[in-house]
Amino acid sequence: MSKSKKGKGSTKIEKKDKNLSQGSSKHKDPQADLELQEDMENADRESARFVEPGDIVPDKNPETLSKKQYEKELRRLQIELVKLQEWVKFKGLKVVVIFEGRDAAGKGGVIKRITQCLNPRNTRVVALGVPTEREKTQWYFQRYVPHLPAAGEIVLFDRSWYNRAGVERVMGFCTDEEYWEFMRACPEFERMLVRSGIILIKYWFSVSDSEQEKRFLARIDDRTKRWKLSPMDVEARSRWVDYSKAKDVMMKYTDIKQAPWYVVNADVKTKARLNCIAHLLKQIPYEDLTPDRIELPPRQSDEGYVRPPYEDQTFVPEVY
Hints:
Layout: H1 10-18, H2 30-42, H3 53-56, H4 67-91, E1 94-101, H5 107-115, E2 123-126, H6 133-136, E3 153-158, H7 167-171, H8 176-195, E4 198-206, H9 209-221, H10 231-237, H11 240-254, E5 261-265, H12 269-283
């Protein structure tokens, strides 16, 4: 199992965890407080952890698919995704897929492959930035609600309301009361979404310590990817264990029957993408509504049409 040194902020966070049960009982459930406190303490024991595949199987020489095999299977799955999209549109289904996980775990890569061949009018990605000062005063879930799907739509959340259970908790961006309220409200919020007819699917992308470091270094070396590595990502890596503890508790309280968590072993990107897409396709029964092949009609005759002079048009310079 991978081991990482705790960052300087770990002590502060551990103290905050130990004091969770203290404070105003007006805002807390004593029994839930006790259970959550026990979970946080148990998270220190490796045997009690909700282990991630990437944590416990950092294979030094993982068996990879050949490029030809990967592209062939990806093509097949993307054709099935198009069929699924047509079915969702035809039946007026509402689908929400949440992608969570550690930084550089490959969430963006699988989202890109899912949407690559789909209609952006029916399938869209939601990746919200830091909340504004106004949004900070709203009901926590309020900023996410406007992005929920209407009939015939699929919405992919590249990170979601689970920011509160992860980065906000670990980095101290929310109070204990706000965190506890999220833990109580989130399962009910998601059950409400499901009762309203939304199909809610949640994925957690797991990556090992060594693989994450490898991907971080690759981003540093690639100028086109450096924007993906923020100071927050660097700080988060120094708090690896704190994030593990936060994730364990999140899984404990939000892995509900109506919307369970599905963990994707993401140490090998190609396999993670194929496994996730294949699993997603199995979550929604669908039929093939691929339109029949059409024949293009003959082009209209240009008889009587005079094209404007070439010199009157502004063209993009042909540099290449």
